[in-house]
Specification:
Layout: H1 3-7, H2 15-29, H3 38-54, H4 57-66, H5 68-72, H6 81-89, H7 96-101, E1 107-113, H8 115-120, E2 122-133, E3 148-150, E4 159-166, E5 169-176, E6 185-187, E7 199-210, E8 219-222, E9 238-244, E10 251-253, E11 256-264, H9 265-270, E12 272-277, E13 282-287, E14 296-299, E15 315-322, H10 329-341, H11 353-359
Parallel strand pairs: 1-9, 11-15
Antiparallel strand pairs: 2-7, 3-6, 4-5, 8-9, 10-11, 12-13, 14-15
Helix pairs in contact: 2-3
């Protein structure tokens, strides 16, 4: 298995190039972002396996010498498991060098919409607990007037090189600088409000412009609205997961809307012109005389706006003929006369009911 090919990088790629390529592919192929693509999970695991082998300089050196079997040593995830890879992907790792050099973490939040909001579009406020820039120190991590100097042990890189001998020869690896904890800087007096982090954790509310036609399970990305990184490094992204509530009247299938049109037996038998209220307007329905339950009426471009393209889906109404259940004696007698004219046998009235009806006209 060619791990370089899986990550889409050359063998001369730097560690930063490998990391950037992994993060991009992991976000694109993450199973949560591709719920209807079963192959994405397999590709995601391959990308994770490739990064585990190439993301660490020592393991990369073994892979370059011995191939995938040498880099993994029998463990498909290099002994760290998927949990370690997720730490790298979501920026939650405990190593200070990772936190110092990477942008802030990506965040997720849920936005609950009604079907009407999903069809017409809406501006939705979402609240998320996140890391924001410390106003007191303006992201420097240093108290006012304190000295910030470059770490003389790592030269400001936040990392130190370690060389050791092994049966395979000289091995070179990098590790977080112990003196500056991977920051590359030494602060004589850290900011008291953020403890030298350059950021604080608070609740933030963002307004999200949800486009018309968005579907249940869709994800909207707000670039730079995730958590800010330590001491002025860039912010991650905020991913807004869309959930659309079920509707009492409509069922959505793709860009089409389906609903039932209930009419009394008289309108179904004699015909009628009716108005039906859709999501964002009304349509006129011409019910032909003699229409039966199950008849369908399709209205073009009256459904959901197409998110990727022009136009809208259709509105499809299914006719349901309602049989009356609350007839008074006069109405029952009229129907009996109608049935008699059509030579249709019907159930006889209950005892005394016909006499009560006739007595009213005696």
């Amino acid at each position: 298995m060619d791990y370089y090919k899986i990550l889409g990088v050359d063998r001369s790629a730097t560690q930063d190039d490998i990391k950037r390529s992994y993060r991009r592919l992991a976000r694109e192929l993450h199973p949560d972002a591709n719920p209807d693509d079963p192959e994405s999970e397999t590709k995601f695991k391959q990308v994770a396996e490739a990064y585990e082998a190439l993301g660490d300089p020592e393991k990369r050196a073994r892979y370059d010498r011995f191939g995938s079997s040498g880099s993994r040593g029998g463990d498909p995830f290099g002994g760290g498991g998927l949990g370690d890879l997720f730490d790298v992907f979501f920026n939650t790792g405990s190593q200070a060098s990772e936190a110092a050099q990477q942008r802030g973490a990506d965040l997720e939040v849920l936005a609950q919409l009604t079907l009407e909001q999903a069809v017409t579009g809406v501006t939705k406020d979402v609240t998320v607990r996140t890391a924001i820039t410390c106003d007191t120190c303006e992201a420097t991590g240093a108290a006012k007037g304190s000295e910030v100097r470059r770490c003389d042990q790592c030269g400001g890189t936040g990392q130190v090189r370690q060389v050791r001998q092994s049966i395979l020869g000289q091995m070179v690896s990098t590790a977080a600088c112990a003196r500056c904890a991977g920051d590359g800087q030494i602060i004589s007096d850290p900011c008291g409000d953020c403890s030298g982090e350059g950021r604080t954790v608070k609740e933030q509310t963002y307004s999200v412009d949800v486009p018309a036609g968005v579907g249940n399970g869709s994800t909207l990305r707000l670039t730079g609205r995730g958590a800010v990184g330590r001491r002025g490094t860039g912010a991650g992204d905020l991913y807004v997961q869309i959930r659309v509530s079920e509707h009492a009247k409509f069922v959505r299938d793709g860009d089409d809307l389906f609903a039932e049109l209930h009419v009394p037996v008289t309108q179904a038998a004699l015909g009628a012109n009716l108005l039906f209220d859709s999501i964002d307007g009304s349509v006129e329905v011409a019910v032909a005389a003699g229409s039966q339950t199950g008849s369908r009426f399709r209205f073009r471009d009256q459904g959901v706006p197409r998110l990727q393209g022009r136009g809208r889906g259709d509105l499809v109404l299914t006719l349901v003929v309602d049989t009356p259940t609350d007839l008074n004696p006069e109405q029952q007698e009229l129907l009996r006369q109608f049935a008699k004219e059509r030579s249709e046998d019907v159930k006889e009235p209950e005892d005394g009911l016909l006499d009560k009806f006739k007595s009213k006209f005696s």
